[in-house]
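Structure tokens please, single chain.
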Amino acid sequence: MMTDSTAMQTRPLPAKNSRPYSVSRISVLGLLALAGMSFSLAAQEAAEKDPGARMEAIKKQIKEVAPGKYDLDGIIIDAATREVRVPTEVNLVKAPVEYMLVQDKGKTHESVLKTTLDPLVIQVALLLANYEPGTENLFAKAPAGAELPNFPQLKPTKPGAHLVNIEVEWEAEGKKKRSPLSQWVQNIDVYKPAPDMDVWMFTGSKIDERGFVASVDGSIIAVWADPSALLNSMAKGNERDELWISLPANIPPEGTPVTLIITPNPQPQKP
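Here you go.
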């Protein structure tokens, strides 16, 4: 049976100068893992079959690297600003795309970026940064009668907690460059970036008999809405799989390291 990702919630990380967590609360967060702690092969295999156990194991990898800043398997989380920085690299410069980011074992033939990170680690990072899965208004711009992917109806407890901005940062000729992720993909009806793609939705992935579906499929950020992906585009046409291609003029060469930067969307969205 498939369940939604709200069953996999966790507490947010403490920001700098916040009230100290009690030992019991830190235990819940999994922040008291012993230095050098390792899991037996049997425990790792059990965790692979049980997303809840995997989630707890992942949380035990969190390290505070500066006041209010945490490292989770290379993902940097700023608890105060809720910024989440994810290491990736350019996978394809010129291609039809359905995804902007996949795991390197996922659908790399149709994604601009790829990462070695397990999608479940990224989902945990987003939950720890106080984002909440939601699907409200995901298809608000779809035409009447359009065939839509089957997403659960999820409404976050805090309005807008499922909405994020996503940017990319990379180095070229010794200088750092930064751009909205939406500038790396274009709509083939007009051959321009979608003007309404700057806001993305943290829909979260699902659990079925195979485990955490995003980890099975490797799907992380989708432009053609995918219930298995962690984040989905809200842009007009997100229900059309043939609509999106990369925008090569804006993308650095394949293999270029790119930091994906996820931040809260500050503005309320209209349906």
